[in-house]
Amino acid sequence: MRFWTGVGMTAKSRMFPRALSLGYAELIDRAKLAEDLGFEAVVASEHHFMYDGFCPSPLLSLAGIAAGTSRIKLMTGAYLLPLSDPLRVAEEAALLDALSGGRVMLGFGMGYCDFEYAAFGVDKKTRAARFVEMMKIVGTASASERLTFRGRFYSYRGVRVGPRFVQRPIPTWLCGGPTVAAARRAGRNGFPYFMANTTFARAREFIELYRKTGREAGWPESQLRVAVFKDFCIASSVSGAKELREQLMRNFYEEHILGFGYLVDEQGRHLYNPSWDHPVCQEFLESIFCGTPEMIVEEIRRYETLGIEAMFPATEQVDLFVKEAMPHFQDAGSALRPGVHPPDVASLGAR
Amino acid sequence: MRVGIYYDFSFPPRLERAAFWTCFLEQVRAADEMGFDDVWFAERHFADDAPGQAQILAAYLAKSTRVLRIGGFKVCPLDNPVRLAEDAAVLDLLSGGRLNFGAGVGDQPAAYRARGVPWEEREARLWEGLDLVRHAWTSDEFHHLGRRYQFPGHLQARTKAAYQRRMHHGRHVPQWERGAVVVDYLAVTPKPLQVPHPPFFVLGTTPGLVRATGRRGWSCVLPAALGREELIQEARRYRRAMNAAGRARGEAQIACICDIAFTDGAAGRRRKPFICGSAEEIVEQLKRLQNDTDLQHLIWRIPFPQLDHTQVLQNLNRFAREVQPLLQS
To answer: Is the pTM of this model over 0.90?
Structure first.
């Protein structure tokens, strides 16, 4: 199991006020620390027009990180592809790939906020079809000398995307929610699937669906790869961890779940202003795994049986995770030998 | 006079790729140490060793340098101006307020074709886009109804109804309480660090662009292709436009991209630029140019990789040691 972590730079909310520039100033230090601790990748995500100043350009933060690190992979998760232009994304990724010596991984998502689509004047109804087409374009652009593509929304003939990619093709991931539509979409097109937080049972269900759809579409097993984003609350006791979860979730509920339609119900509708007791809301709460470090290790082992190759452990207790959980996994945390105390990583927030 | 260096990536590649970027970075870092004021570069599409998207290189340089101001000439009409505003704000934050917002229309119609933007509309799109960028940086929630851009994009400006639509009606709804309501106003975030906003530097590749830049009171960068006489003429055009619009001289800078060659040692090189010679001769020519054009900012085009890496480093060093003390005195 390999581990990914966040850049944690836009943690400015109404409850934790902070100057945005501070986050950008310490970007490299955080990434370096993550690199030394044995994380495989730092992941930057994208949101627009947020009152909290969320970074709208993940590849720019990653380009900054690239300048100060040498090994850690630079991953977007998710880059909101339908809001952009595939050629622009390909050119951005190509340049960063060249500058970083081939360390870029592209996670693409669709986003869910209506106002983001409205703001860029992008039709939300056709977003799924456009998204798949755009992902294929970026993949093709990175794999071939000249980009020739004929699609429903975009067509190119012999465009030479420059500078040339170092990684050919560049690794791409479909970042999707734990939904039937996302699992099928990833499987049908043979895109590696980076799945958002959910319970173990649902994760297993959607990973099986993904693999089944992928096999039926004729994709080889090696192409059907899975990584998961998993929320953890860690404390020395379960009740302590649950208390932490309650605190964090209250904040997240008020800042994101209420206003932004973050949660989706069974019919795929976004929920705005759901009550705290709403079943979907409670289910989300339950999907955040609470436990002691030993329980976290066990939970990750359970995920390993699903054939997951990487995990983004989203947790506020990164120091506990790094000290107590990571060393149990062989190919992660190579920098941490027993008896060696990791540096203080309390500041390495994941969200 | 401020002095920066510029890379236009138009010289044929002579190095292996990895070496090209390593050398380039070493040169920029050296310039950072030597006390140059800024680094500039062009955005060039469909080329092997060139930045196809200026903002990525700018972000990388922001974290590779300490004091240099950073400016890439973005081909603005290719992008939604909202994205330009967002990217530039992030760059300003990344660099600790060292961003110069370089803007131009580029010289590659093929790039416009590939992105589906009409080449003929390039100047109109540039100006409407830059006005929107400035608006996005300096206002909180706003909307823009222009001929080519609308923000938020669901407002269709071409219809009369759009212009008559009442904005901001009723109680103002904060973003976190909005839910599914799509409102006619949005704030572009984050905001840049520099106040009121990062300075605009427009690449004055046509007389029309030079005039319009002067009228807005923004800094104008005259391109390298111009000869001495043409430079003087364009600089006058810029000043006239500035004066006519009632702008003060101190509002913006006039900058020009120049080739400079130390030719005292190596005689009989190919075409010599009009600023060449020994350090003293170069200073004399630069001062004369400053006198004639009211130049405030010199941007030295580095002919890399045509000139090899060690030669470039030597030249940078020589400029910093021999030319700068005389030039700035």
So the answer is: yes
Structure tokens at A17: 């006020």
Residues pairing with A256 in the sheet? none
How far is the C-alpha of B148 from the C-alpha of B292, rounded, in Å?
Answer: 39
Residue-wise burial string across B104-120, b where 16 or more C-beta atoms lie within 10 A, e elsewhere: bbbebeebbebbebeee
Q: How far apart are CA A96 and CA A164, in angstroms?
A: 10
Q: Predicted ipTM?
A: 0.94
Average pLDDT over residues A179-194: 95
Low-confidence ranges of chain B (pLDDT < 50): none
pLDDT in tens, B1-19: 999 999 999 887 777 777 8
Helix or strand run (H / E) with residue A248: helix A238-252
Residue B257, strand partner residues: B299
> Which has the closest alpha carbon to A296: A203, A240, A349, A232?
A232
Q: Do you know the residue count of chain B?
A: 329
Q: Does B38 touch chain A (CB under 8 A)?
A: no
DSSP per-residue letters across B55-82: HHHHHHHHTT-SS-EEEEEEEGGGS-HH
Cα gap A207→A197, rounded to integer Å: 13
Beta bridge partners of B256: B222, B298
- Decide: residue B66, CB within 10 A, 0-12 exposed, 13-18 middle, 19+ buried: exposed
Choose the mutation target among B48, B63, B139 for the interface with A, i.e. most A CBs under 10 Å.
Answer: B63
| Nearest chain B CA: its distance from A211 CA (Å) | 34
What is the per-residue burial (b if ≥16 Cβ within 10 Å, else e) of B222-239? Answer: bbbebebeebbbbbebbb
**Which residue intervals of chain B are DSSP H helices?**
17-34, 54-62, 81-94, 109-115, 122-138, 160-164, 207-216, 228-244, 279-293, 309-318, 324-328
DSSP A344: P
Q: Long-range contact list for A330-336, CB < 8 A, 24+ apart?
A: A331/A1, A331/A2, A332/A1, A332/A2, A332/A3, A332/A38, A332/A39, A332/A40, A333/A3, A333/A37, A333/A38, A334/A38, A335/A36, A335/A37, A335/A38, A336/A37, A336/A38
Q: How many CB pairs below 8 A link A and B?
A: 173
Instruction: For residue A78, give both structure tokens.
Output: 């998710």
Place of tokens 């170092």: A166
CB contact under 8 A, B55 and A57: yes
Among A54, A119, A270, the residue with its CB nearest the CB of B153 is A119
Please tell me the predicted confidence (pLDDT) of residue B269.
57
Ramachandran area for residue B151 (φ above 0: left; ψ -120 to 50: alpha; else beta): beta
How many percent of chain A have pLDDT more than 90? 67
Is pLDDT at A341 greater than 50 in this prediction? no
Chosen for mutation from A79, A91, A168 (greatest number of chain B CBs closer than 10 Å) is A91
d(CA B99, CA B242): 23
Which one has a higher pLDDT value, B178 or A60?
A60
Q: Could you report the per-residue pLDDT of A79-129, keeping only the tens digit for each?
A: 999 999 999 999 999 999 999 999 999 999 998 888 899 899 898 889 999
A219-235: burial string, b at 16+ Cβ within 10 Å, e else: beeeebbbbbbbbbbbb
Residue A15 CB-density burial (10 A; 0-12 exposed, 13-18 middle, 19+ buried): exposed
